[in-house]
Amino acid sequence: MPSISMEWFSAYAAQVVMVISGIFLIAIASMFLSRRWGAPWIISDDEAISRMLQLARLKEGDLLVDLGAGDGRILIQAVKHYDVKAHGFEIDPLRCLLAKIFIWRRGLSKKIKIKWGNIFEVDFSQADVVTSYLSREANSRLRPIFEKQLKPGVKVVCNAFPVPGWVPVEIDNINLIFVYQVGNSGDEVITEFV
Question: At 129, phi and psi to the nearest 5?
């Protein structure tokens, strides 16, 4: 039985260490990017996503834009259950790739576009509905961008965290979902207690 040369073993061990180090560095960068420019990745449960999409009152042909799209769950459910187009933006390249794979595996690549990008620097002015599960601070930074880019009547649906300074037109207190409509003050807020 031939013996493994020390030279071969050293080269192989160095490659393994490099791959593991690369994966570790990518994971650290992934966590840093998300926390720095939006929110840590917390997966929305299916019930919250369903409720967000119900409250958005999507219509056929609407364009839904998901900011901080993560693995694409909101985009996939929107396209599967409503006849809409969907675009997502995600700062984390790993999650963006993961979302692309999930979308491709479901055969939805023609209906869903997901891009790697900083949500504070992208154009989503064509949206009919914007969804997000971002931190309060991120929503606060997005508010002037919403006000500049979005047309009156566009709905902004936020999971868990409100947009500071805006009054929601509807709140689901059970699932903690806030619905805003650009140009509507929300004076008549509808709350739902189930």
Answer: -140, 135
Closest CA to 138 of 118, 117, 155, 110: 118
Measured between alpha carbons, how far is residue 65 from residues 3, 33, 59, 177 in Å?
Answer: 58, 20, 14, 16
CA-to-CA distance for 161 and 139, rounded, in angstroms?
8
Which amino acid is it at 67? L
- Determine the Cα–Cα distance for residues 80 and 101; give it in Å rounded to an integer: 16
Q: Read off the tokens for 100.
A: 């692309």
pTM of the model: 0.79
Instruction: For residue 66, give both structure tokens.
Output: 């998901």
Beta strands in the chain (DSSP E): 63-67, 85-90, 112-116, 129-132, 155-159, 170-172, 177-181, 190-192
pLDDT digits (tens, 9 = 90+) for 158-175: 999 999 999 999 999 999
